[in-house]
Records
---
Amino acid sequence: MNSTGPNSGQAQAMFDLSGKVALVTGARRGIGLAMATALANAGADIIGVSAQLEATGSEVQQRVEAAGRSFSGFQVDLADRAAVTELAASIAESSRIDILVNNAGTIARSPAAEHDIATWDTVLDVNLRAPFVLAQAVGRSMIERGYGKIIFTASLLSFQGGILVPSYTSAKSGLAGLVKALGNEWAPLGVNVNAIAPGYIATDNTEALRDDPQRSSAILARIPAGRWGDATDLAGATVFLAAPASDYVCGAIIPVDGGWLAR
């Protein structure tokens, strides 16, 4: 196929993020790192947020700057409600955000009958409350400008119940509803709100599953693609939802799961 034909420039423009600013939570590692890298490679400057983000020299900073884009970062624990509120206020006052990627998350595994309520609160705060607070703050300025892209990281457990993860499933199911609610309300105002639902990706959050021979084998047996996903498998969907190519996509949750949900 000729990639330099008469329509190639138009096709590239559909995925061009030059001049855009993207805020990515959980950008220090895993899926967030891959998302931030993909957005930078597509032309966006990156604001990274993570609980343990280094002041300078982080891997995400190195990748973004290697792509020729600017990087700034915030070290914020998204379980800290006051810190999240402060971050939201700071961003709303000082930064123009064109793309918000609410990716940061945490998981806790234990039987529901023994699930600690403090742990429940932390998981809900990180996975549901903080994303809404940030979306609300950034969304206001997007609405004023009549343009913006908000991407949430949902989960297969936005559709299924899971095992031993009652707080995580509740948070990710709530996130799916939030995506639809915001999508309905903000689409007429020029703001696209969507989500990506990663499948079983090889990250820290799935390490316990990958280390369990029985669970890992059972999971692999159900994935039509025949492998665990890599964080970079999320790159294409992230750029798509951040770019003009998705201007008519609203309130959608796109699985990137190797076919798991279709099985």
---
Amino acid sequence: MDKAYIDFVALYSMHWAGSFFVTRAKVTLNYEDVEYNYNIDERTGLRYDKTIKLTGPKSKQLYPEILRIVEYFDEEKDLLLVFLINNFDASAVFENRKSCQS
């Protein structure tokens, strides 16, 4: 999904259908931290991985459940990416299988 518009009705429908989603978060997203993952290795590009609750008047009504927000810095492209996720079990860092086999 594009970060220009976050459709919390669609995301909440996906959540209740048992689907997982990943979408870019808007800079203006209002939320409060519920839980913070302190086990972060910034060498991977991961900056934070938090559980949040939306606090914007409309967004918290449209998506009342907790979410996960992950910030990743792509050093090669000098690009900061922030994602909203409803999957709390998946790793926030993609592991390259070739490097894992060494």
---
Amino acid sequence: MIEKTRHIKDTKKLVGQLPTIRYVEPKYAFCATTNARCAKYELFVKEGDHVNKCQQIGVRNGGFFEQPIHSPCSGTFVGLEKHYHRNGKLIDFIKIENDFKDTFDPSCKERTPEEIAKLTKAEMTEIIKKCGLVGLGGSSFPTYIKFQTDKPINLILINGIECEPYITSDHRIMLEYPYRIINGIKYVMQAFNCKKALICIKSKYKDIEAAYKEILKEFEGSGIELCLVKNYYPQGWEVAMIKEATGIKLNPGELPSNRGIINFNVSTIIGVYKAIKYNMPVVKRNITITGDGITHPHNFRVLVGTPIKELIPLCGGYKNPEKDKVFILGGPMMGASVPSDDCIITKTVTSIIVFDKASYKEEPCVRCGSCVLSCPVGLEPVQIMNAVKSLDKERIKALNPLKCIECGLCAYSCTSKIQVTDYIRRAKIFAKL
């Protein structure tokens, strides 16, 4: 009997219990010149220039918005060097030779509680914009754009669900930096004049539940509460999280702000805290390095711009080094594959998953319907795949592949091992023509 796939094999238990290893002093740090949202860039420095930590050294242009580029360390701009980006493309990176002095840019100044209390929503939005904060759960969407909504916000949701398998970086950050998270939430509540916030976690995360129930006793009357949600995948998708936490079901394409809700990933909320409190961009982040190709999986706190190659030895190197490896930046369900470990940790890299390369024989579709049953947005993946194979553009558009959130459940549940999600990604391209 074919059933709806909602649960992914649990691969988190061990790594989530290990304390985070700190690695924030690479010899060179690298800043991406472009990304999936911004195809153009401009540099404000030339080779040989000294730069300070958190100094703006360039800007990316995404058409209707810009993303400032900040140096993650102090040192010397060496030049441009090509490496793989999390989007799987080989691009130019700005190479900074670290002087290990941690000389902060003068723009980084701590604000007093009194100064923060006087900040308006418009002022906070501008601070976050200048700090270049984006969605750190992997979306990379500029956070300041969320702050620009003119809708009244009655509820703030903090996404600590981390529903993809293997990844535990948010799990550790919630245990290790709870006060940064809570203060970041308070700043957002102040900005939107909102009286209620829910920290959403899966109900199986008993360690986080116990920690936050105790910590939140210090913030009674703040309006911040813990919200336990179900343990299925993709519970971390904002539509699923909102429905589970509030009972509200968003319409396709509807913004949560239309319902008086705004949501942030836990890492993003720490970014809000650092921006408002210290006027600092994101220069460090937590990541998970794991997979059956790694000897000792771990969580790390690293300098943004650190080459992944430098972290592999800290995990005991590759298990079975004679075997070819598959490298995934992000989760195994929604992440991007890169051809080698010659890639860089950017702000939105949540994890590096290394698998031993394995061969799978794709069988013909048996029309079992598992992909249809499992699709959280109600698509017909096989029909979309067939339309792509026949290059039927009108049929593709009629099947509405743009609704796809690329959760990967169609491919995961496929009994014939067909990479259905890849066909739907191709269908999205056709649908936009």
